[in-house]
Amino acid sequence: MARVLITTVPFGDHNRLPLELLESLGAEYLINPIGRRLTEDELCEMIREAEVVIAGTEPITDRVMAAAPNLKLISRVGVGLDSVDLLAAKRRGILVSYTPEAPAPAVADLAVGLILTLLRNVHVANAQMHRGQWARHMGRRIPNVTVGVIGTGRIGTRVLRRLAAFGSPRVFVNDLNPRPKLVEELKLEWVDKETIYREADVISLHVPLTLQTRAMVGLEQLRAMKSDALLVNTARGGIIDEIALAEVLAEGHLGGVAMDVFVDEPYAGRLSEFDRCLLTCHMGSMSVDCRTQMEIEATEEAIRYLSGHALCSEVPEDEYANQRATQLR
Hints:
Blueprint: E1 3-6, H1 17-25, E2 28-31, H2 40-46, E3 52-55, H3 62-66, E4 73-76, H4 86-91, E5 95-97, H5 104-119, H6 122-130, E6 146-150, H7 154-164, E7 170-174, H8 180-186, E8 189-190, H9 193-199, E9 202-205, H10 219-224, E10 230-233, H11 242-250, E11 256-259, E12 277-279, H12 288-306, H13 317-328
Parallel strand pairs: 1-2, 1-3, 3-4, 4-5, 6-7, 6-9, 7-8, 9-10, 10-11, 11-12
């Protein structure tokens, strides 16, 4: 009987199909009983007998893999791979798969929702109303601002298309891989990141966490932004320097910030002191349809492996190359 450890939670709450797939195969499975993101130590204890891990964002390090001598597949529910030591997995002959497309629509929806919320100060008004304060806030609309989007991959591109439906805002974009057709189709302006930091009214981040993007938005970049600029991060914790962000907010700089992702989760830092800093709990992919699709796709990869079939969404070689370059530096 195969042993499957499901570390990501919730899992199977809105649709039991992933669990039914495992049960139909006769696979023995355990869902993370702690009910939150596991620490490295907790995962080392829990993973010992596992042959397959259906994983979330917990740290799957070389030490964790060493504690699991039977581990053969890490099937990631989601797309981010910064929490998985891919090179250690390769050395140990452990396959890694992910679900790159499934979460994108939900994350893009949340990013646009956060942009709208910041533009109209909904978060600030809500906090004030809960304290018994009545203060109407003047806001801005998307067609009348300059939006900067850094990262035009699966999620960034969806954000751009959604923004276009609101009218004709001026939109700056930046990515390591320019996409001329996208620029022409959506009437975008391809610029460097410094131009976005300096001139955009709204900045939305959609890049993976790599050596190049870690603390990409630090004190210098934050202070270069307009005093009333709005900043949204639904990508990965660590892209924005959280200590620097709290510092500039305390100085009265920036009109508003929305953070869905953090270096340490659950988050318990200083950003919660600021009404104009909207905090959500890494819930970008948490729409019923997208989350269910992610769980199904990750489970189907586990079923394929356990049934002796080839994987459909194995992590591509360039992701391993990215981690290798990071380690070399």
